[in-house]
Amino acid sequence: xxxxxxxxxxxxxxxxxxxxxxxxxxxxxxxxxxxxxxxxxxxxxxxxxxxxxxxxxxxxxxxxxxxxxxxxxxxxxxxxxxxxxxxxxxxxxxxxxxxxxxxxxxxxxxxxxxxxxxxxxxxxxxxxxxxxxxxxxxxxxxxxxxxxxxxxxxxxxxxxxxxxxxxxxxxxxxxxxxxxxxxxxxxxxxxxxxxxxxxxxxxxxxxxxxxxxxxxxxxxxxxxxxxxxxxxxxxxxxxxxxxxxxxxxxxxxxxxxxxxxxxxxxxxxxxxxxxxxxxxxxxxxxxxxxxxxxxxxxxxxxxxxxxxxxxxxxxxxxxxxxxxxxxxxxxxxxxxxxxxxxxxxxxxxxxxxxxxxxxxxxxxxxxxxxx
Amino acid sequence: xxxxxxxxxxxxxxxxxxxxxxxxxxxxxxxxxxxxxxxxxxxxxxxxxxxxxxxxxxxxxxxxxxxxxxxxxxxxxxxxxxxxxxxxxxxxxxxxxxxxxxxxxxxxxxxxxxxxxxxxxxxxxxxxxxxxxxxxxxxxxxxxxxxxxxxxxxxxxxxxxxxxxxxxxxxxxxxxxxxxxxxxxxxxxxxxxxxxxxxxxxxxxxxxxxxxxxxxxxxxxxxxxxxxxxxxxxxxxxxxxxxxxxxxxxxxxxxxxxxxxxxxxxxxxxxxxxxxxxxxxxxxxxxxxxxxxxx
Lengths: 371, 295
Fold this sequence. Notes:
- Chain A is built from 17 helices and no strands.
- Chain A is mainly α and 371 residues long.
- Among the domains of chain A are: 22-221, ABC transporter involved in vitamin B12 uptake, BtuC (Orthogonal Bundle); 293-349, no CATH class.
- The longest helix of chain A has 26 residues, at 23-48.
- Chain A is globular and about 85 Å long.
């Protein structure tokens, strides 16, 4: 393996071309790209509405539905199992919302209770299913870990249809979703039904989650929703841009993860996709212009230099001041001394970014007064 | 000791220590952190496994606890950079660490007894097979000692630092004024949560660790009026759900962990509906009475 790493160019071209002509790879990569794309789009809204962990909950909560669907119908058809998954995820989401609205338990804790209990119920049901004659948990456990390599052209087509429907939905109701994500109160006062839009967004999150479980598995699905959105957020200030970019990032992660796992044997596809998405997010957080961590450090250093220049404490006089401060009588308070010797006076980034991670929502003109 | 009794003891003690940690998390509104930690400890276990070459080493505990802390610290770093909101930070960090763990396992350790199933789902039924021997004498299942040790540690932590924990969880400013370090206490709590999650995963599996950290604490939160009572109620609810779950699992011949988690959910459901003040029925009645009075 180390030898192969030394010849990256050769490794990258030869097998990649072979891979491109491989039918299974193309099917799986296409499926993963579609799922990544959709997760990117929907994930933007979940991230902005602080519902990012809902995906994690929904994907765990799908398990009892999958098993029940199998126990009742006896079929292992993907569509049947996914229908079961949808029902139990929606139930868990509804329970979470009910608990967090009606009691003093917060959304997060309610979600943790609902998802873990549903998952436990699913496990109990799986062990029931194993007692039935002729049943094995093969095909069911792939819903826990995902098995992208088992995707068929039919699954890919189903994903494509869902992508088309959801994209059309997002485009048509974009303004409603935007308001539901940023300012539900304003939406209500403008006569838009933000409750309905919020509900639709939650439903879309659940739908995409369930679709994605096939590719990356229940445990990792939340990353596929969150990471592309977080990455896209760093590069743009408009919601439309963020959504488009997240779609691209999601699709790229899907293809890259699939390619990586096909080139190295023993690397499962789902985790590889998640690692790809996380790498994109990490690079974006570090290097995005203006907002990224690197840009922030540069800006802070410049500010520090400016402050130093402005207070006229430069490197020549500083040691003398420090010396004087050392000799200062104990009556001088240490806080006072710090200001003189430190010189930098801790430039604070007051007000910068104001701690929000939501993009400034593209100016008032395009969302005001919509109906 | 009969195997069923041993299983029951392990289950009750594991559930109780999870409930203590869960209560500490719940009052800070960070229950989903339990979910994150319970997944990422897999990475710690894998790394420690590679270093120690076996699954029995105490390194496993340390590695897992360390990765648990790393998860929390990375998440906080992201939040502090102000680029990512709190829940997204958790949602970015833990799947990455978990995915790395799964890749490492399938690529380098697939031939050995370390599969994701055992860690995620656990198998309480096998617990009595691992024996603890002292001077060549069989003194009970190993799990009993692990879970008893964890429970003692958790209870000691809470009893010794009760006042500090209470102040930090409910009134950070007061804690700062009084001179405790919220950060230190926070990381100590997270270390405790990680240790408990590691110690519990082979009894109940890491996903159900979350169930036992979330459900009994939430039940107690609905019933109890003070932090101390909440802790007692959480431990009671956890022990009750463990016992009900074990009974049900034996009767119906289903997985122990699954049945226990379901029982914890049912106990929570009962509290949700019928808790005297904060339950759905109680709240409804109160609203109606208030409505009548105002009319």
